[in-house]
């Protein structure tokens, strides 16, 4: 049991020496993990970064592939690609004198993704993993009225749930409210968090204040990514960054959200932390995607599962 003045997430990582912070859902998800990763680096931990990637990894040279389905991305990787969040992050890290390799996993099913994680764990003797979701759909157990876009997130959860020899496996969800535009009921998100608390898997929440070193660096990294990828900036991290700056309401920062009303608010800057095995145990369809090798299999298995059940209706947060 930890004391109130300590943070349960970082307390769980206190004895870890080689920590992997990894994005669960593709795109710019790893950016949502930067505040935690940087804080661990500043504590003297050896931190490695990875991301389930939406980038065109197939065009990388053979020497970039550390193992099947595991690529090492550096600031010089694939200069011809305009959309490459992992390389954009590597360039920002290099400019700020941090280790500048970001590992990338292509979109696969559970089995090859787990094998790639195993290679990375063995390569760096990883003794703790923090899986980060920019958003809250990683917290959906499967019977909610809307799941958002859970395929990549829960493939990552399933892949890591079986790595029992890694002493600490944790989940961090950042960006509360942003998935409302993907059909997620955040009343049900809160209900799920309460259930995870009862199960002993919820580790509490903490904010990303802009007055901290890590908060300021996160804002700088997101701004750099928006400059480098002006046509496809991250809506999730842009919203989180706006919340960290103290913005509120319909804060428009990209043409991608034109016609949508945003609700940027202080809860978006909260990091909700969980025990990964505990979270995995509550997912109702994780066993159905266990033997998948392709992402399209994950999509079809979830769709089949959804056809068989009565979903929980959305819950309105009183106001």
UniProtKB/TrEMBL annotation:
One Pfam family from the record: DUF1152
InterPro entries membership: DUF1152
Protein name stated in the entry: DUF1152 domain-containing protein
Species annotation: Streptomyces nojiriensis
């Amino acid at each position: 049991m930890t004391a109130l003045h300590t943070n349960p997430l970082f307390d769980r990582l206190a004895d870890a020496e080689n920590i992997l912070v990894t994005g669960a859902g593709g795109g710019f998800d790893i950016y949502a993990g930067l505040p935690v990763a940087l804080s661990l680096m500043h504590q003297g931990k050896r931190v490695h970064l990875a991301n389930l990637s939406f980038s065109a990894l197939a065009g990388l040279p053979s020497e970039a592939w550390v193992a099947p389905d595991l690529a090492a991305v550096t600031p010089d990787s694939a200069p011809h690609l305009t959309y490459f969040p992992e390389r954009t992050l590597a360039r920002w890290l290099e400019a700020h004198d941090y280790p500048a390799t970001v590992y990338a996993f292509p979109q696969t099913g559970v089995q090859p993704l787990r094998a790639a994680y195993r290679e990375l764990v063995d390569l760096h003797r990883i003794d703790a993993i923090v899986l980060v979701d920019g958003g809250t759909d990683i917290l959906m157990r499967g019977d909610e009225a809307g799941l958002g876009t859970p395929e990549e997130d829960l493939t990552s959860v399933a892949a890591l749930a079986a790595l029992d020899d890694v002493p600490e496996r944790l989940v961090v969800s950042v960006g509360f409210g942003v998935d409302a535009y993907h059909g997620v009921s955040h009343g049900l998100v809160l209900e799920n968090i309460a259930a995870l608390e009862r199960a002993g898997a919820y580790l509490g929440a903490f904010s990303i204040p802009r007055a901290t070193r890590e908060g300021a660096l996160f804002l700088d990294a997101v701004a750099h990514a928006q400059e480098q990828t002006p046509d496809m900036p991250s809506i999730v991290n842009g919203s989180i960054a706006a919340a960290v700056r103290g913005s509120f309401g319909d804060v428009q920062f990209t043409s991608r959200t034109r016609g949508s009303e945003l609700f940027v608010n202080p809860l978006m800057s909260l990091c909700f932390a969980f025990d990964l095995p505990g979270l995995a145990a509550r997912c109702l369809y994780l066993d159905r995607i266990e033997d998948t090798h392709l992402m399209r299999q994950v999509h079809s298995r979830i769709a089949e599962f959804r056809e068989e059940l009565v979903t929980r209706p959305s819950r309105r947060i009183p106001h």
